[in-house]
Design a protein that fits this description.
globular; binds manganese (II) ion; six-stranded mixed beta sheet; nine-stranded mixed beta sheet; binds oxalic acid
Length: 605
Amino acid sequence: MNRMAEKGVLAHPGIRKWVDEVAAMTRPDRILVCDGSEAERDELTAECLATGELIALNQQRMPGCYLHRSAPHDVARTEHLTYVCTARHDDAGPNNNWMPPADARARLTPLFTGAMQGRTMYVVPFLMGPPGSRFSKVGVEITDSRYVVLSMRIMTRVGPPALEHLGASDDFTRCLHSLGDLSPERRFIMHFPEQNTVWSIGSGYGGNALLGKKCMALRLASWLARKEGWLAEHMLILGLEDPQKQMHYIAGAFPSACGKTNLAMLVPPKELPGWKATTVGDDIAWLRPGADGRLWALNPESGFFGVVPGTSHKTNPTAFDMIQRNTIYTNVALRADGTPWWEGHDDPPPAAALDWQGRAWTPASTEKAAHPNSRFTTPAAECASLSPEFENPNGVPIDAILFGARRQRRIPLVYQARNWQHGTFLGATLSSETTAAATGKVGVLRRDPMAMWPFCGYNMGDYFQHWLDVGAGLTRPPKIFRVNWFRTNASGRYLWAGFSDNLRVLKWILERCAGGGKAVETVVGAVPTLDAIDRTGLTVSDADMAELLKVDPAEWVEAIAGQEELMQMFGNRMPRELRAEHEDLARRINAAITPPDLIGREGDE
Ligand code: OXD
Ligand code: MN
């Protein structure tokens, strides 16, 4: 046990008791209490280099950068092995796998028993959110993975900030993690919201193992947020300064690997001078009503865990530059000069490299060099566009909320909800084509309300009601918009330029927030007129723009049927207001596709 043990974290009776209990079950050789110091990081890194858990990248060119190769079957979140264990099944809802808490413990106790024999048990106190913030929450992760400790040090505030925030309180999330034997057969990520506890075994992958992130800051936090009157969301937070030097903040919910990090680090196009973008967060937002009737948001994380493939100077120059230092790469390819490479890198494919599993790779190989869900883990402090408000304990006031997804057809580039209730409906009916961030088939359309389907720690019907309740308490609620950067034409070509040019859409959104912005009312909401989105210097034709903004009521008939399934799925937990929105949409669509002579005849009968 290190120096911290006597005077630091283990002096806390609640943590001590829990550590003792876990140690009795997992039987580690050694317990090390992490203090978050640089010396500790260097020691852990040296150990990882010795064991092969990390490979040093070219330290001249990329100081502080390392490569980690995971077990080949442990490369993404495993939603089918993720459970919410509430006393009543209905409280977890149809959106979660469920197990009674006692059964979950009985199932996992044998797996954890003796799991840390021959290993060190690390005790990692961490703070989600800035020190001194009413938003912030403390967790303690116990893990037997050095890679997890090093990653937690990037993604959360480890050591003294957590202990100071906790003080004598026993209010901390108990996050227990072991690699176990890494077998998918013995892998479970169990959440116990009623006990503010997570047990995760059998995976070292970020979303399954860095328990401050999806497990605590979304699943357990969403449960707590409902109790306490706030929202824990799968959202980026972007600051935009307009040419008049007014600051605006936008929060955006998008499913995993749909471009949140790129949008959060947006670089304004040169054709729109005077705009400045700053990054508050790229994955998680905690939002609370403020005394001024607005919604305030902060990012509880302190680092970025981003998808590497596709990251380049074109798509995200800020991220590309950011990951040249102090970054842990997971599952990318390695070039002979000790630098990483991936599909979508600015550099052409190397003549020879090692793929993400360390096997010889050439451009003739049929497999990808980097895993499609390979990741970077980088401190927020490395991000050149990081907002000066990043550490503000009050967060930032949100002007607009975006709900976005990956949809090739039907969904226009952008449209605006009529009010908060309609906006909640737009979020609740979000669907997206699946990506490599979770195991399973890629490109399949699935329902993903508020981009929270895999992360809502309770019954989503109650979650929708909570959204309505939070909105009802705001006198100046954010305006809500649906966006879709991914619409294609009949031959599969993306119609929208995306990346930097998304600012053009955000500009219209901010105009709408200020009471301007030209729009036409459609059955789904207010859509920009053909000339409303600034296309200065952009080669998107009128025809493509018209296609991007098209709302074809006939295409929406199918959507209504899908929404009906969602309504059924949540039964009487689905708020009445959202049923009413669904029926209203069905009525509007029906009216739009019914030939006028039929309407006349119906009226005559
Ligand atoms: C993530 C995810 O890692 O959503 O952020 O899967
Ligand atoms: Mn995410």
